[in-house]
Write a structure and sequence with these properties.
Distance between the termini: 61 Å
Radius of gyration: 27 Å
Strand order of the largest sheet: 1-6-5-2-3-4
Number of helices: 21
Structural class: alpha/beta
Oligomer: single chain
Length: 431
C-alpha cells in the first residue's frame, strides 16, 4: 500500500522543495528514488542521518529506496558549500568503505527481503570507471551548456566568494557527473526521483535536465532543509569533531549524550526528523515535556530512539547506565561492566596518573594512592583528613584509612577510580 510520502515528510519538517508533479507521481504507484552518500570514510556520521531517514520513510511509504555510494563523485568533490577538493581513493579502500556504509544503512533500510520495494545499494564508480573522457564530453557534455552550469548557485557562490581561489574544472564538472548518475539510474533501474539536501537542488536538476534532453523522460527532485542548531553552532559536530555512526569512532555513550544534551527547541525539531514515532506520540511527548522541562522527557526519548536505531537496545542500556555513573548511585560492579572506551568517555577530562602494576599486586595503601603515588591530594595529611571525613571513594564505594588497593579493584584490568566528595574524580591508570 502506497502512503503519501510528501505529506509524511511535511509534518516532520523535512521538506524544502518538491518539483511540481512529484507528489502525484509518487501516489500513482511504487517508485524508485535515490540519494547519494560520500564514501571517503568507512562510516557515516549524524550529518548523513537526514538523507538516511528520507530513504527510510520512503521505503515505509511503499516505495523503493536506492542508496548510491559515490565512488566516482567522491573522488572529485562537490562544490556545494565546500572549499576543498577531496582525495582520490583506491578501489580497495572504496569497496571497504562501501561495505561499511551498507552495514550502517541496513539499520534503517530493508535490503534483504523479497519485497518489491527492498532497498538496493549501487556505486557510481561501477559505471563511471570505464567511461572515457572523450565519450563523456561527447555523449553527456554536449547536452548541457556552460551558461546553464554557471547559473547554479553552488557554482556562482564558489566563484564569487572573496575567499575563493576559484573553482577547478574537476569540481565544475561535478554536477554533470552527478546528473549522469541520475540518467543512468533512470535508464537502468527506472529510478525517477533524486532526493537530497537543499544545497543539492542545482546538481539534482541537472540530472532531471539530462533525462529530459537525452532520454525524453521525466525525472523529479525532492529536497529537505539543511539542519541547523538553535544556538547557531553546526549540527552533527561535537568538541571532538564529527559524531559518527560507527561505535569505534563515536562510542554509543557519547552518541547518546549528544542527543541528550540537545536544547528544548532542537529536541522538539529532532524528534520529528530522527525517529519513526507518530505525530500523535510526538505531540504527547512534547506536552509531557512542557509540563516538567527539568525532567528532559523529550531529550531522553529522542536519545533512546536514535541510539537504539543506530546501535542496539543493549548499547542504549549501557549508555544509560554509564550516564548514571557520574550522577547516580552506581556501584563498583556498575563501573566494572563498562568497556574501556565507555569508561574513558564517561570520565573524559578527569585528571589521571600512571602507576606500575607491581604497586597494585603488592597492595597499595589508600593514603599512598591518594597522595605520594597518585598525586590526587597534595599530602598524606590531607589524605588522612579526607578519609576521616568519609569523603573518599574507590570505584564509587566509600573507604576508610586502612583500605588497601589490590588487583581486585581494577576496572578493565587497567583503571582505578578515586573520588573525593561528589564531583572530584581522579583516575589511576595501571601500566
Amino acid at each position: 500500500m502506497i502512503k503519501n510520502f510528501v505529506e509524511e515528510l511535511t509534518w516532520r519538517g523535512m521538506i524544502h522543495t518538491v518539483m511540481p508533479g512529484a507528489e502525484e507521481h509518487l501516489m500513482e504507484g511504487m517508485r524508485s528514488a535515490y540519494i547519494g552518500f560520500d564514501p571517503t570514510a568507512d562510516s557515516l556520521h549524524i550529518g548523513n542521518l537526514v538523507p538516511i531517514m528520507l530513504l527510510a520513510h520512503y521505503q515505509r511509504c511503499g516505495h523503493k529506496p536506492v542508496a548510491l555510494v559515490g565512488g566516482a563523485t567522491g573522488m572529485i568533490g562537490d562544490p556545494s558549500g565546500k572549499s576543498n577538493e577531496r582525495n582520490l581513493l583506491d578501489e580497495k579502500t572504496l569497496r571497504h568503505n562501501q561495505d561499511a556504509i551498507k552495514n550502517q544503512l541496513a539499520h534503517f533500510l530493508d535490503f534483504e527481503s523479497d519485497a518489491n520495494n527492498a532497498a538496493i545499494l549501487v556505486n557510481n564508480y561501477d559505471w563511471m570507471k570505464e567511461f572515457s573522457f572523450l565519450d563523456f564530453i561527447r555523449d553527456v557534455g554536449k547536452h548541457i551548456t556552460v551558461n546553464y552550469m554557471m547559473a547554479k548557485d553552488s557554482v556562482k557562490n564558489r566563484i564569487s566568494s572573496d575567499a575563493s581561489e576559484g573553482m577547478s574544472f574537476t569540481e565544475f564538472t561535478y554536477q554533470l557527473v552527478q546528473g549522469y548518475d541520475f540518467l543512468h539510474l533512470y535508464k537502468e533501474l527506472n529510478c525517477s526521483i533524486q532526493m537530497g539536501g537543499s544545497d543539492q537542488w542545482g546538481n539534482i536538476t541537472t540530472g532531471t535536465e539530462l533525462i529530459r534532453r537525452i532520454d525524453s523522460g521525466k525525472g523529479f527532485a525532492i529536497t529537505c532543509p539543511l539542519i541547523t542548531k538553535s544556538d547557531g553552532s553546526k549540527f552533527g559536530k561535537s568538541e571532538g569533531g564529527n559524531v559518527w555512526l560507527d561505535a569505534n569512532r563515536t562510542s554509543p555513550y557519547k552518541f547518546y549524550q549528544y542527543w541528550l544534551n540537545s536544547s528544548d527547541e532542537d529536541a522538539e525539531k529532532y524528534i520529528k526528523i530522527f525517529t519513526f514515532l507518530s505525530e500523535e506520540e510526538i505531540i504527547s511527548i512534547i506536552k509531557e515535556h512542557n509540563e516538567a522541562p527539568h525532567l528532559r522527557v523529550l531529550q531522553r526519548r529522542l536519545a533512546e530512539e536514535i541510539t537504539t536505531m543506530v546501535h542496539s537496545k543493549a548499547d542504549l542500556e549501557n549508555a544509560i547506565k554509564a550516564s548514571g555513573i557520574l550522577f547516580g548511585k552506581s556501584t563498583s560492579d556498575d563501573l566494572k561492566q563498562l568497556n574501556e572506551q565507555t569508561f574513558l568517555d564517561v570520565f573524559d577530562g578527569v585528571p589521571q596518573t600512571q602507576i606500575s602494576k607491581s604497586e597494585i599486586e603488592n597492595g597499595l595503601d589508600i593514603i599512598a594512592a591518594l597522595a605520594e603515588k597518585g598525586g590526587f591530594l597534595k599530602s598524606n595529611g590531607e589524605a588522612r583528613r579526607a578519609l576521616k571525613e568519609n569523603s573518599i571513594s574507590v570505584n564509587k564505594e566509600k573507604v576508610k584509612e586502612d583500605y588497601i588497593i589490590t588487583a581486585n579493584d581494577l576496572i578493565n584490568n587497567k583503571f582505578i577510580l578515586l573520588q573525593r566528595g561528589k564531583k572530584n574524580y581522579f583516575i589511576l591508570q595501571i601500566i
